Amino acid sequence: MSLPMGELEVVGESAPLTNKTVTGSSIVGRSLWSIAWRRLRKDKVAMTAGVVIVLLILIATLAGPLTALYGQNYLTHHNLPPNALTDSATNLPIGDFGGISSTHWLGVTPVLGQDILSLLIYGARTSLIISGLATALSLVLGVTLGLIAGYYRGWRDTVISRIMDVLLSFPTLLFSLSLIAVVGIVNSSPGARYAIIIFVLGFFGWPYIGRIVRGQVLSLREKEFVDAARSLGASNGWIMAKEIMPNLLGPILVYTTLTIPNYMLGEAGLSYLGVGIQPPTPSWGQMLSDAGNYFQVDPMYLVLPGLAIFISVLAFNLFGDGLRDALDPKSTR
Fold it and tell me: What is the average pLDDT value for the chain, to the nearest integer?
């Protein structure tokens, strides 16, 4: 019986790490990453979320040129005569929907009259920098310690696992608020604020990826290819770097896309509570906090940063879910 021409893919429990395409008389293997990319492209929701993420990164990266092209700057205050855009009596923007006009597309803020679109653009940069670097810190700590715990086991595993248990038992938000307050972040420089928030989020977040990596390594270290490497005299460091780490890239990638939005919410929450990013540095959480006093009379000031947070977090979560399904060898997509 001859095989039909075209692409053959095995799915389910026995799905291999490679896929095979029959072309004439030759069989071309497909890597796991090739299969995952094919599956991901078929997921319209995940691909749409990916486009939103790319746009968000571009906006944050090109914040300066974009606002220069737009012609407005978040540092400019439009609350002084003769060109004031806020009412001196009520501190509210002059005009409908928060002062929306041809020069201020999303209006201006109460009191200071700052351009809201410029604040949102630079707020995206703040959010992505903090969440991205905090995620990187969590990855470095979690992957390194999880790899050591899972591979060596014994007393190393016991010590690292107990540290993870202790950190996971902390009320992270309350401890973060206390730690940041003790450091005096409210009165520190913008750079110090960034560093402390990144440290707090990244340090208390690494046990989650640490547990994932440890569990994966405990399984991988018993595989035949690891035994083969040991029998050939490979060192422990070589085995971890060359044999085990490549098999951890999938879970690490999924963890990254699902952790960034959590840290975005964490940064926004700390700024909303007044211990995170402080003016004049733009932050979506700070905008929400400032809008709390005006949401009944100027709802746009509250809706816009809230919508920015919602769309960004949703995009990362949807893309992370799609990526996880695409990398799952049991997936039927």
Answer: 86
